[in-house]
């Protein structure tokens, strides 16, 4: 990952590769800071008493550590393995992998622009990463909404950047589910149910997908796939309320409940 800073910040989570394991700790190369190395003291390897460091960490192992101290004058970076929980470790590894992919795409961009990658970083890459938080987030923004991205980014590189983003970035999505029950004893009950269900699959957004699966009368599974939970929840509420309102207006009994642990 290309960094403008020479050293990580205190408290930052970093990805590293274990270089050498000693009885008193382990030396780790910092993957995101080329040429930089950190040290995990035995007291920061794991919670509780650690008798043998190698029981917890080995050479060439990929680790996520928390920076606990930085001495720039001496080039020392102190790290902790035990202060990183599993959720933080997983998120950081995913972020690191995404940034690696983004950097490969940025190299491809530089090639298409017939310029040196470092020059491209200096010209607009660092600014772009700062504006969006990460380079990968910038590619996601370009893939999700090219027009909005182009409005905030100026330069001859924008068109090619968007093209590469749309061809290579799979936008993140979330999925929520619920169960809708509709019962009608009216002579045209089948038609009532069909009309109510048709209200569900009408999404307000192009990037939101809503599907209905028959589970067995009178139960139907409703699934919403959206860019984030906020949009997914909004669409689930809207479409099920529309369906229930139409069904009850025509004399049917209708109810909805979530089945994915959310409420």
Counted up, domains total 3
Write the H/E string, N to C. Answer: EEEEEHHHHHEHEEHE
Instruction: Please report the first level of CATH classification, the CATH class of the largest domain.
Output: Alpha Beta
Total beta strand runs? 9
User: What would you call the quaternary organization?
Assistant: single chain
* CATH topology (level 3) name of the largest domain: Alpha-Beta Plaits
Unreliable stretches covering 5 or more consecutive residues: none
Main sheet record:
5 strands, mixed, barrel
Look at the structure and name the CATH superfamily of the largest domain: EIF_2_alpha
Overall spatial form = flat
Mean pLDDT: 92
Task: Count up the helices.
Answer: 7
In CATH, the architecture of the largest domain is 2-Layer Sandwich
Instruction: Work out the strand percent.
Output: 25-35%
Helicity, in percent? 25-40%
Head-to-tail CA distance between termini = 39 Å
| Class derived from helix and strand content | alpha+beta
Calculate Rg over CA atoms: 26 Å
Strand order of the largest sheet: 1-2-3-5-4
